[in-house]
Design a protein that fits this description.
By secondary structure, the chain is mainly β. It has a domain at 63-261: Immunoglobulin-like, CATH 2.60.40.1190. The chain is built from one helix and 15 strands. The chain has one helix spanning 9-20, and strands spanning 46-49, 54-57, 63-68, 88-89, 92-96, 105-113, 117-126, 143-149, 163-169, 174-176, 186-193, 196-204, 217-226, 238-241, 257-261. Strand 11 (186-193) and strand 12 (196-204) form a beta hairpin. It is globular and about 55 Å long.
């Protein structure tokens, strides 16, 4: 792990912080974008990945944060245990035509995690919610797609063993994208009511990979597919994403956004935009002007 040529900086910094209450010093390695400082901070525009204590370029990607679950999360589509969990909207049109209104199609999600896996609640307003009818093409129905990279430090385009795409239908069927069948598993539950539907799901951490630790920074994106059943076909009308506006995340893992697994007792950071554009940034100056 890179720490620069001056190994005494850490001790001097610790002494100053203890004696004077001074702000944490910055590791000289941060200046070349490699290391976090002792407080887990990076230069403006970078995010700290504590698994390697390195700084990864924020690069305009949206950041979601998952709080540590306070207890066992039952996958039963009961939203009561999600009260108080931050929701972030899906605002990027990855494919198809834009919704005519929020009632036509609008989605948001919340995230939790524990040592077993990642939990997501995806809630959609949707005037037309037909039963799945597209066979193996799950993405052509009302569907949720989850994109996850357990080691985003390389930001490589090709899917590797630690990155995956999983699809979850309104029938609560969970399936890996066929191009990379790594054997990842999970469970889901679906419910629909009054022009809305939601999916609660758990993605298990893979058995053959080290589970992520508290504070970990993961590659992440989430999409919702909308099939209105129009025109007598079995094709979707649109796809909304959290981060990827190109709709190409299914074949390019470098297009994922970020997900931070928060330590116990830590709440998600305030986000001036309310959509992940400012979350995790040290300064409001990094937020778009319309969010300040």
């Amino acid at each position: 792990m890179h720490r620069g040529s001056d190994q005494g900086w850490l001790w001097r910094c610790a002494a100053l912080v203890a004696a004077l209450g001074a702000p944490a010093c910055t590791d000289p390695g941060v200046l070349d974008g490699k290391d976090c400082d002792p407080a887990g901070r990076c230069l403006e525009g970078y995010l700290c990945d504590p698994s390697a204590w390195s700084c990864l370029a924020h690069a305009g990607r949206l950041l979601a944060e998952a709080a540590l679950a306070a207890g066992k999360v039952e996958i039963d589509a009961d939203r009561e245990e999600w009260d108080g969990v931050q929701r972030l909207p899906l605002t990027k049109l990855g494919w198809g035509t834009a919704p005519e209104s929020a009632a036509d199609f609008a989605c948001a999600f919340g995230a939790l995690w524990d040592r077993r896996g990642l939990y997501l609640l995806v809630e959609c307003q949707d005037e037309a919610h037909p039963a799945p009818d597209s066979g193996a093409d799950l993405h052509e129905d009302d569907c949720v797609e989850v994109f996850l990279d357990l080691d985003p430090s390389t930001r490589q385009s090709a899917y590797a063993r630690d990155s995956n795409q999983l699809l979850v239908t309104a029938a609560a069927e969970l399936q890996e994208y066929p191009a990379h069948p790594w054997g990842w598993s999970g469970s889901a539950a679906h419910r629909a009511e009054g022009g809305a539907w939601w999916l609660e799901l758990r993605l298990d951490w893979p058995d053959d990979l080290p589970p992520p630790e508290a504070g970990a920074l993961l590659g992440f994106d989430l999409a919702a597919d909308d099939d209105d059943g129009e025109g007598g076909d079995a094709l979707r009308e649109r796809q909304l994403f959290f981060n990827d506006a190109s709709g190409q995340a299914w074949q390019d893992a470098s297009l994922f956004g970020w997900l931070r697994l928060l330590p116990e007792g830590t709440d998600p950071h305030p986000d001036a935009c309310g959509d992940g554009r400012c979350a995790g940034l040290e300064s409001a100056a990094s937020c778009p002007a319309d969010c300040r």
